[in-house]
Fold this protein.
Amino acid sequence: MTSHTRMRRSIAVSAAFVAVAFFTASCATGTASTASGTAAKGDTIVAAADPSLLPYNFLGTDGKTWEGINVDIAAALSTELGKTIEFQSAGFDTIIPGLASGRFDLALTGMFDTLDREKTVDFVDYLAAKNNFLSSKDFRDVESMDDLCGVTVGIPGGALEADLLATASTACTDAGNPAITVNEYADLDATILALTSGRIDVTPNDSAANAYVLAANKDTLKVSGGYLNEGYFAAAFPKKSDLTDQVNDAFAAIIANGKYADILAKWGIDDRGLDATMINGATF
């Protein structure tokens, strides 16, 4: 975690700022982009993103300007593609259906490439996964999903962790231990609010997101453990989209020219970079 907490970007360290950031992100959903609809018309590519996924995709204090790791990556890719990637707000669990229906050209948000998701969409894997558990500082350390028997856990709706928690909960009850209580929320904003208000004990999440939240809540929150660290974060596309290969090539270009490494360093996630992207490289 030390590399994540050394973020070079100037971030607020007060809980008040995080609350404001979460509020603007959740309230501005659907207003962050004038783009609507369909497949790479003209010089604009419509990218779906959940605006609550700090620090990957979020809205600035004006409630409309996109910021984050993926926003910086999109700007670099746009230069190589010769087209502007324009973000459109979408709830996480609506993104894959939106790709399949042609509403979005791609998704550039905190999404895992999985074998199951590859049945519906294609992926360009561009970031190694790293996940851990965020909890209140006075809660015991959590080592893995198997360490959550009897614990109340919160996750955003549509998160991959739902299946992992269901499997872990079954293992708990089969061993005679209490089940895991899982509460799903509209987005990461609401999940963190549930944690800080004491309605849940733990939330499992991406390590960069957890580090970003922790930076503003060092006195009250902590991270521990880890899970599912063998997979990849990926950009998602409608099946057989020409854009998949184009974006894969654009990633190769920004890796070669150093822009990719610069962006990861800026956000303190140097350790999660790949030497090369891959198409549909799911490991689970």
